[in-house]
Amino acid sequence: MDGDGQWRCHRFESLLPYAILLRIATVKISSNAPMQDFPRWNLTSHGQFRVHSAYSVRMGVQFGLTEPLWKAIVDFKGILRIRTFIWLACLGKVLTNEVRCRRRMTLDSRCHTCGFEVETIDHILRRYPVAYSLWCSLVCLEHLGQFFHLSFKEWIFANLTNSGFFVKDGTEWELLFGSLIWLLWNRRNERIFEPDKMHWEPILSHGKRLQQECRSSTILARQSSVVPALARDSIRWEKPPEGWCKLNTDGAVKGELGMASCGGVIRSDQGTEPAIGSQ
Ligand SMILES: [Zn+2]
């Protein structure tokens, strides 16, 4: 703290993420406080560091034991890569410029698209102008304030579990929500790494296609779990008519090396193997 009762943020700003610094800055400190500053471990009642308290927090975050958020992500019925993305986003491990800055991979934490000071995952998925107008078009007016006011994790949790609370059409909202945040992240990457790529399809209709894909794959998974034996039976070698031989072939190519190979097996209607060849 300096003489005016303000935080000397420059002393620790390199150690903490921007969002935490903002939270610290909102805490008003009294210049008349009788005590000197001292470090305090907030996870024990006496303020002293204990390994077991840090361990339990770490394990809880890692294995999803302490917060219902992690269970909600595990239970997400959408495409696996989207579920993984949501998990990483909530752990703060998606490589936004804020995270890259923290890992010393860049010195520039700005959003390269709109110039916002710090490109956080929340900025990309919720507050970046394209994302903002997308959500505004979907969320009911009376819930719009709450939708944008929740913390990032609360926002993810609410949308994965409270289907339809925020939006005008809540049918399988969690699937559409997951698809949309996944697309927002992908399009951000394409703007940076493939600036010439054009998208003719709006994010919303692309998101609805992914939502449909999730729905179809869920139905398919349910069906295939009911009749696994039938699915296995249909993939097998079938003998040719009596007196005939059957040739089965396969091939592979390794494009960058220019190498290719193919082979085949000829079998009679008795299943014997009169000839095997490869090139
Ligand atoms: Zn931006």
Automatic annotation (TrEMBL):
Residues 49-135 form the Reverse transcriptase zinc-binding domain. Pfam families: zf-RVT (PF13966). InterPro entries: RNase_H-like_EbsB-rel, RVT-Znf. This is Reverse transcriptase zinc-binding domain-containing protein. It comes from Hibiscus sabdariffa.
